[in-house]
Design brief:
disordered N terminus; 3-stranded antiparallel β-sheet; single chain
């Protein structure tokens, strides 16, 4: 006699759970299978990436390859709107249009990062259409456009032309997902460490500056000290509108 599903649940709950778990796995597999990707090398991402987060993995790679110094001019700290901080490649300001004044092109210039969110990566050569640091490109570029948030995978750029392209093997997908997970882990490590390191370094810099100032003050003549007091007093006086 055939057993009903209900009976089965009453008699053997574990078996039903297993069936449900299998069903969930099948759905998850089906969802995974829907994501296909093959980079078309259109380079749109390098042209509009905005700030690119850097991780310890990237720094370790550059150190191993002896190229850390090459990256230093492009690194900056990004204070994010949510209060967190990231180490990033700071995009260069856009090339001025005809008739426009030349903007500050120093990566440490004072253009707010919010104005550079859509700008090209500073290490992309537009004329030659190539990444200047391909072998040393950050982890974030290796997983793009897939990201992992600790729970789910998300596509961060739905306009990426590589999405939906055929030709992705199961191994390719597995590797991409592993890289996205690795990126999440490395970014988390960096986001935990960076505020602590930044505070320690700022404190150290501040203490060194104070010590230098005190040393300089102790070497001043009485006349110079009186002049300095005068300057400071004037600076504190209310200024006319
Ligand atoms: S990841 Fe997407 S946007 Fe970037 S180069 Fe490949 S296809 Fe183009
Ligand atoms: S580092 Fe290279 S791959 Fe990454 S965004 Fe810049 S140019 Fe593109």
């Amino acid at each position: 006699m055939e057993e009903s599903n209900e009976n089965k649940e009453n008699i053997d709950g574990n078996e039903v759970n297993t069936e449900k778990e299998q069903e969930k796995e099948d759905i998850a597999e089906e969802t995974k299978a829907k994501f296909t990707f093959k980079c078309t090398r259109c380079d749109n991402c390098c042209l509009t990436r905005g700030p690119i987060p850097i991780t310890f993995w990237d720094i370790e790679l550059w150190a191993k390859n002896g190229v850390v110094a090459n990256f230093l001019p492009y690194l900056d700290i990004y204070h994010k709107p949510d209060g967190g901080i990231d180490l990033i490649f700071k995009p260069l300001p856009p090339t001025p249009k005809e008739g426009e004044e030349e903007t500050q092109r120093d990566p440490f210039g004072n253009i707010p990062i919010e104005d550079l969110l859509e700008e090209k990566c500073p290490l992309y050569n537009k004329d030659q259409k190539e990444c200047l640091v391909y072998d040393n490109r950050p982890l974030s570029c290796r997983t793009y456009p897939l990201e992992f948030d600790g729970k789910n995978f998300t596509v961060v750029d739905v306009d990426c032309p590589g999405i939906g392209e055929e030709g992705m093997s199961k191994e390719d997908l597995k590797e991409m997902r592993e890289t996205a997970k690795h990126m999440f882990y490395e970014l988390t490590r960096m986001r935990i460490s960076l505020p602590v390191l930044s505070q320690i370094i700022s404190q150290k810099v501040m203490m060194d500056l104070m010590r230098q100032n005190m040393e300089a003050m102790s070497k001043m003549s009485d006349d110079d000290r009186t002049k300095l007091d005068e300057i400071l007093r004037k600076e504190q006086e209310p200024q006319p509108d």
